[in-house]
Design goal:
single chain, 2 domains, 10 strands, 287 residues, binds magnesium ion, 9 helices, binds adenosine-5'-triphosphate, Rossmann fold, four-stranded antiparallel beta sheet, alpha/beta, 21% strand, globular
Length: 287
């Protein structure tokens, strides 16, 4: 598959501001011109710019995979030739059977794993070429939430979140305010002094979301965030992730939660055996 980026640039060239008649009428093409999700890969022909109209700057994708493949040292091919682009502000589900490369894809975004070939761009920067000393800066721009919360068991909700700030050298006078603000966002203002063992699984996941948000990252990744939660709590956590997305944060969620995906009808990217087999703008879990 041809890398998405070049097509996106062409698509945006079709609708320079102030050029009458250049805005496509049908929804798919209009979405494509905005750089929206799956519709952007529709491959619809676009009008050339009239003479003298400057080429608009291409919108920088929040995440771009450009022909990315990943083979682990044991020979397992986890990701095969994936090219996709996620625009700033999108909410995307990544679905697919177990072992199809969802977590591997996520890990390559925050540089936990490197691809064997291809490029991964975050905010337009190729993170595969990022010097190791710059990785902590990337991690502050990419919040990550896991299925198993990964909280420090002997620290309270407040301390778990504060720790994420303290290790990056945020001035200590700023820490209490920022922690309180983010605990408020996730609905845990009243539970700040609870230890993980004193909280429900849903509350613990809220703490881990607060920790992921405390650096105010433009991008939030959640790898099966509801995998350990009952259906009602899963729904609440997905609602919270949707609300966070409305606060101008790009959100990417891997999930096996069919019900939630089918109700929310957001962009769905389906993987099978490491390859993208479906990418729909208002998708369902099973196509
Ligand atoms: N560190 C690793 N070393 C070797 N093989 C790995 C490693 N991590 C994952 N794999 C393999 O790569 C493939 C993709 O794994 P991955 O964890 O990305 O799948 P997944 O879609 O997230 O699965 P699940 O839905 O079970 O979380 C699997 O075959 C897995 O066994
Ligand atoms: Mg996984």
């Amino acid at each position: 598959m041809e890398p998405r980026r070049s097509r996106n640039v062409t698509a945006r060239a079709a609708v320079p501001p102030g050029v009458p008649g250049a805005v496509p009428e049908d929804g798919e093409t209009a979405a494509r011109a905005r750089g929206d999700g799956a519709a952007g890969r529709a491959g619809v022909a676009v009008e050339p710019l009239p003479p003298g109209v400057p080429e608009p700057a291409p919108e920088v994708a929040a995440i771009e995979f450009d022909r990315v493949s990943k083979t682990y040292p044991n020979g397992v091919v986890a990701v095969r030739d994936v090219s996709l682009s996620i625009a700033p502000g999108e909410f995307v589900f990544i679905v697919g059977p177990t072992g199809t490369g969802k977590s591997t894809l996520m890990k390559m975004i925050y540089r936990e794993e490197l691809p064997t070939s291809g490029r991964v761009l975050v905010d337009g920067r190729d993170v595969t070429r990022l010097p190791a000393r710059h990785v902590p800066f990337l991690r502050r721009r990419v919040g990550v939430v896991f299925q198993d919360f990964k909280l420090l068991p002997r620290r309270t909700a407040r301390e778990n979140v504060a720790f994420a700030l303290e290790v990056t050298g945020v001035p200590s006078r700023e820490v209490p305010r920022r922690v309180a603000d983010v605990l408020e966002v996730v609905g845990l203002a009243g539970r700040a002094d609870a230890l993980p063992g004193e909280m429900s699984a849903g509350e613990q996941q809220r703490v881990s979301i607060a920790r992921a948000l405390v650096h105010r990252p433009p991008l939030l990744l959640a790898d099966e965030p509801t995998g350990n939660l009952d259906p009602d709590t899963s729904w609440e956590i997905m609602q919270l992730l949707s609300q966070i997305n409305l606060r101008a944060t790009t959100v990417v969620v891997t999930t096996h939660d069919k019900m939630v995906v089918d109700v929310l009808r957001r962009r769905v990217i389906a993987l099978d055996a490491g390859a993208v087999v479906r990418d729909q703008r208002r998708g369902r879990y099973g196509g």
